[in-house]
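Fold this sequence, please.
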Amino acid sequence: MTFAFDSAPVWLDLVGVFFFAVSGSLLAARKNIDIVGSLLLASLVGLGGGIIRDLILSNGPPAAFSNPAYLFPPLLATVLVYSLYTSVERFTSLLVLFDAGGLALFCMTGTVKALDAGMNPVAAALLGVMTAVGGGLLRDVTANEVPELFNPRDIYALPAFLGAGLTAGLWSAGAFNVFTAAAVAAVVFTFRVLAWRRSWRAPLAVHGWHRRGDDEAGSGPSAAGGARGRTAARQRRHFGPRQLARIGSMTDMFLEKFRALVPKYLEDEWQEEDGLSEAELDAALAEHQFQVPLVLREFYQALGGCEDLMEAYHYFWDPEELEVDDEGFLMFLEDEEEQFTWGFRVGDLGVPDPIVYRRNNARGQWKSEEGTFSEFVFDMFEWAFNDEED
């Protein structure tokens, strides 16, 4: 037996408004917007999709304007973020999690309300998708962000399409109820979070085109490494213990190259105190529960004691300071202003010279630098010291 939208609990729609509103306030906090702007951004993302839906359905004033209860979730979200942000800002996944929760609920409520208004299932599903993505689109555009809907490195609308399609199908089959609705919401939420965490991507608009690095046209070490990114990406495979033993000579080559950076940039011979011994490195890493890539070990062995290079441009973390964040990235480098952090995917730690990723600390999103650690380090020092000479 199906249930009509009017008989469904209003709080289900309000929870969706709250989830989206929190994502808006979190984005405002990360961009240092004042509390008034935070409230406006929370209201825009929380109520925007529903207003679009209600205007298309032409069923009188939108619920956001006719029911005062809809104004409470954005206000609550703004106050919570204002009060608790300093305690939770290190959890960079919160924005995506709350956004995923709002997406899961709104793709259903938008579809159900459209079906209840007499729309056919296909049109109702499309309106459900518009309801789900509309608020997020308004949020990102207003905050001067690239909308997640158009982010080629992420999947945003597909989970909403899946949820709206399942809702319309279950409604048509007479099987849409509280339990199936909860199942649909769980599927959409899981799909959205997995797509974000694992960097799932949809095919590009033109067959055969290649994605370019984020900073390919920019300046600095990220741009310098972009030209070799396609070659480096093909090296992303894992090696077992026997394979790692066979490539020992390759990692020794990195050790000597890292040591060569001392005379190249500091005009002095490399000395043992410039690096860490095997015993010192093992002691520093002893308490970690994760594997450290071979190339990073050799970097510390070569330069771990050389402060002039460890802090030449950005700040390399000492071995004992290494940690894995909530998104599953082993972090090893941070800039002076703490705007960006660099790391490896935990799943790539078995690769001798893995791909480097960069996190925008304000947005909490990791993106590939399209180059391996060795390429990134050599390009970074080349760019940093040449820039000083200029």
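The mean pLDDT is 82. The radius of gyration is 25 Å.
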